[in-house]
Specification:
Blueprint lengths: L8 E5 L6 H17 L8 E5 L5 H10 L5 E4 L16 H6 L4 E4 L2 H6 L4 H13 L3 E6 L3 H7 L3 H10 L10 E4 L13 H19 L1 H6 L1 E5 L7 H5 L6 E4 L6 H8 L1 H5 L2
Parallel strand pairs: 1-2, 1-8, 2-3, 3-4, 4-5, 5-6, 6-7, 7-8
This protein binds phosphoenolpyruvate.
């Protein structure tokens, strides 16, 4: 498999934004915008990650209108069922046709004290239920100063991949914490350097085939005006987009990155 045989993936992490009515309207508008632009839906995978309470409505819409977007969740429980108030099982997500789940996002690591052990348990829970874990790793600005860009994300990924089978489908997202929501994206070269090291980790842990197949995304202040630079890099296979995934025209333009760059 050659470089860039991997279908690019543009993933929209809505975080705690858009209720279920707003979510339905948003997905409809995004689909129309892409159709109006004669977008080639086969050329790029698109997944939206709405809040839990939107999932059923969005899933019904995608199904009814045959909208070719993937549906993802922003989190899941390490447990499958039981007395865990407020938790959501991977089994429930699977029943809603959710295909993937974000794990290890820096906001979960920071505000919910999720360390590498919890991330690893969540990766296992996702795989147990046939969900693709989107494993987020990234360094803070302090880490960057102390250890450089790659040491922390590489260590986080090594831990997250413990016990993962070579043929498991996973997605990895390199998200430098200093770039998230700051408007200060990494440069394409910085992203490439770390994404390449993360692909090396996948090769060491899961083998060369897995490394060639697995999509490694960049995330952190991605916009329509900078997406092209990232996707030109050989080891960057797409983007995890926060703020800009909440604006129909901006997100549609990110999804259509091939048009503005000729990748
Ligand atoms: C994110 O939170 O995953 C993210 C990349 O956010 P933003 O695009 O807003 O920086």
């Amino acid at each position: 498999m050659g470089v860039k045989d991997r279908t690019p993936l543009i993933a929209g992490n809505w975080k705690m934004n858009l209720d279920h009515l707003q979510a339905v309207a948003f997905v409809q508008k995004l689909h129309w915008a892409l159709k109006d632009a004669k977008h080639d839906f086969e050329s790029v995978d698109v997944t939206v990650f709405p809040p839990f309470t939107d999932l059923r409505s969005v899933q019904t819409l995608l199904d009814a209108d045959k909208i070719p977007f993937g549906l993802g969740a922003q989190d899941l429980s390490v447990h499958d069922s039981g007395a865990y108030t407020g938790e959501i099982s991977g089994a429930f997500l699977k029943r809603l046709d959710v295909a993937s789940v974000i794990i290890g996002h820096s906001e979960r690591r920071e505000y919910h004290a999720e360390g590498d052990d919890v991330v690893s348990a969540k990766v296992q829970a996702a795989l147990r239920h046939g969900l693709v874990p989107v494993i987020c790793v990234g360094e803070t600005s302090e880490d960057l100063e102390k250890y450089g860009a790659s040491a922390v994300p590489v260590g986080q990924l090594e831990k997250a991949l413990e016990g993962v089978a070579a043929d498991a489908e996973i997605v990895v997202a390199y998200e430098p914490v200093w770039a998230i929501g700051s408007g200060q994206a990494a440069t394409p070269q910085q992203a490439q350097e770390v994404c390449q090291k993360l692909r090396d980790v996948i090769a060491q842990r899961l083998g060369e085939d897995a490394a060639a197949k697995t999509r490694v995304l960049y995330g952190g202040s991605v916009k329509a005006s900078n997406i092209a630079g990232f996707l030109r890099e050989p080891d960057v296979d797409g983007a995890l987009v926060g703020g800009a995934s909440l604006k129909v025209d901006e997100f549609a333009s990110i999804i259509r990155f091939q048009k503005h760059v000729g990748v």
